[in-house]
């Protein structure tokens, strides 16, 4: 039943222009969010590069990692976040 209900809900995926103001935030707030997001993304890429590499090496064989990689962000933003 849940799958049938899920088919009735339209799919949507935010692009970068919509991502930081999807709740109707002002352009100023969206700009601050964008800056903070990329600052945090850069920090994580530097600080956790080894962890990210090791995770990608073993994730095919560990179902829990596959699950958390798929569902750690809302589906409407997952596509955009994966491209970062």
Instruction: Estimate the global geometry from the Cα principal axes.
Output: flat
On the 0 to 100 scale, the average pLDDT is 83
Q: Helix fraction? A: over 70%
What is the SS-derived class? mainly alpha
Please, how many helices? 6
| DSSP strand content | under 5%
Q: Largest sheet, if any?
A: none
Number of strands: 0
- Following the backbone from N to C, one meets helices and strands in this order, namely HHHHHH
**Uncertain residue segments:** none
Radius of gyration: 16 Å
List keywords for this structure.
84 residues; mainly alpha
Tell me the layout of helices and strands.
Elements (H helix, E strand, L loop, with lengths): L1 H7 L7 H4 L7 H21 L1 H10 L4 H9 L3 H8 L2
Question: Brief description of this entry?
Answer:
With 84 residues, the protein is mainly alpha-helical. The chain is built from six helices and no strands. The radius of gyration is 16 Å and the shape is flat.
């Amino acid at each position: 039943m849940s799958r049938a209900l899920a088919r009735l809900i339209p799919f949507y995926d935010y692009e970068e222009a919509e991502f930081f103001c999807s709740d109707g935030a002002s352009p100023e707030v969206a700009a601050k969010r964008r800056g903070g997001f990329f600052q945090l993304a850069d920090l994580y890429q530097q600080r956790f590069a080894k962890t990210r590499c090791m995770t990608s090496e073993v994730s095919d064989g560990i179902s829990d990692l596959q699950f958390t990689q798929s569902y750690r962000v809302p589906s409407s933003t997952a596509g955009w976040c994966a491209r970062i």
